[in-house]
Amino acid sequence: MRKVIDCRDYPSESRCTLTISGEEEEVVRAASEHAVSVHGHAAGPELLEQIRAALKNEMPQHA
């Protein structure tokens, strides 16, 4: 099942609205890169763990 993480769920000063969805490892990698480059988080295992814990299942899109 695809996973999703949405910056709007974690309010910040930048008011980021980015949503990332895809296979779990893709989302964790992209979200961690985004968290470091845009939000100033420190890269490392703790960040990856926090991101993985925050993932949600993507809701199927209906036509």
TrEMBL record:
Q: Which Pfam families match?
A: DUF1059 (PF06348)
Q: What is this protein called?
A: DUF1059 domain-containing protein
Organism ancestry:
Bacteria, Bacillati, Actinomycetota, Actinomycetes, Kitasatosporales
